[in-house]
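Inputs:
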Amino acid sequence: MIYREAGQFKMTYASDQAIFPIVQDRWLVAIGIVAAFVVPPLVANEYWLQAVLIPFLVYALAAIGLNLLTGYAGQLSLGTGGFMAVGGYAAFKLTMAFPWLDIIVVFLLSGVIAAGVGLVFGIPSLRIKGFYLAVATLAAQFFLVWLFNKVPWFVNYASSGTITAPNRAVAGLMVTGPNATAQTRYVVALALVAVFALVAKNLVRGRVGRSWMAIRDRDIAAEIIGVRPLQTKLLAFGISSFYCGVAGAELVFLYLGSAETLAFDITLSFLVLFMVIIGGLGSVLGSFLGAGFIVLVPIFLTNVPHLIGLPLPVALQKQMELMVFGGLIIFFLIVEPLGLARLWQITKEKLRLWPFPH
Amino acid sequence: MSNILYGVFLAPFKDMAGSPAFLAEVLIGGIFAGLLYSLVALGFVLIFKASGVFNFAQGVMVLFAALTLVGLMERGVPVPAALLLTAAVMLALAFVIERVVLRPLVNQPYIILFMATIGLNFFLEGFGEMLWGANVKKLDVGIPDRSFIVAGVQINQLELFAAVTAAILVAVLAVFFQRTRIGRALRAVADDHEAALSIGIPLKTIWVIVWAVAGGVALVAGIMWGAKSGVQFSLSLIALKALPVLILGGFTSIPGAVVGGLIVGVGEKLGEVYWGPLVGGAIENWFAYVVALAFLLVRPQGLFGEKIIERV
């Protein structure tokens, strides 16, 4: 009853193809965005912003990027960490070379650079598919991380080998660096994620997204009906890497503050892939749900033993964490292989009839 | 510019020709490393052939087997009994995996099964360390580890032993697959699940057998790796090294896994020793992937993989 689209007539094609065709969805998204901008900076403390909300937003952006590539275009990639590293290091080099450049512009430019790198590593996708492609993208992961580790130019010859976010302000407000408050960093990350999530939503409903899905579902048939595989796949790699690159820049500048290549190793690639799969392949909402799940589970697992008054030794706790994490992933895949986004869909279908299901 | 060209195309070969004994040592080191990669890759191939599952947890299975073996030996179990017990543990593990992970996920897309094995990877890693502790352990099952010199080339007994073991293992697996009833059933399942089911081959039993065999291969690989570099967490990372071996050899071919392993092992060592210094070294991590990638562009199904035939 609450969620009923009866009476909402589509008078034009434009309204029929809107990003959110149903009024309730539009309200929900609008309220959600406003609430996300207003509530956490007012109520959340430093710990919540720094340890939960900011990483959540950063990972959500990366997950949307990977979801465009894997969920929509069907190209399995394990190189996410590498592409995020490109974003992070590009942002560092750019802002050090051009300190007057607006940091938001720097983020976007580093996304563009990551997109270029993604295009190069996307070329093999034309000939190889499935797991062969996944392993091929691992080449990108290892090569890029090795490159940033080996060439001191990327860290401006810092002897520590780390890149550190300098102080940069936007419109008088310190956005990155040690002097930026968690609130500001949160709002900047949120703004970027909100814009790019809407862009992604817009992309996948249009011609580009449809050609991606055609390639994903049956590439040869798609080719026959006139989808050009080379351009389509490369576009998916490029746009996905752009998202990952911006997320990588955010990871360094808004979340960690400073980073070395270890932050971008293969674990990060798997983490983002988990988010996409647990959240739901081919769903922008799922990317958010998956990122939330993966960020919250470790925090939950660390705190539960304390809450029930059973403090465990650190080593044992670490091992338990691994076990529970692995177990939960298997459990979720068995219970709902289509991901958390599917659960939300089911909820919506129930809400449509509620409270009179028959 | 000419310096770079010289460094890439001429100097390495001059070095090789200049000291053949050293080249032979590098080659032998490469072959040994390659055989160990093949042992891990074999486990992947077995499972992929029979169930179409890309088992990412194979590396952790190697670690888990080695940890169990060392743990048992540390508690005073004699070597042969410890080996048998570990084999039994791997068999039990195969049962549990089939029952808990694979059976509920039958008919799911391949990526879901792949993710499930990554979950399994995490679980086994935590479980193994919880049972047996996380510190580095020395594994000594009585393989001699002395070196002797043949024609000016140093050869390590352990490496020789590993090579012979790998050869025997591959031969046994080949006979098992080609000559036994179960092997025939395995090949039937690999060919076509539904057809195999319809003529009465029990799919679930076959999967348990395959995972158990892969567990056995993991045990052998674990012993070799453990004897070489100690039993520790980094052992699980060799799974990542086995992946380029797989794409070189093809996901479905046992000889492919061996040949691919040798190519990767030798190529990696040659690249590291002769070309690595040009770019600052430590290229072992990605060199194999780039070789495999270049290779894939020419032959997308690997050296011995089944030709991919596609139709609408």
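Chain B is about 75% helix and 5% strand. Flag for discussion at group meeting.
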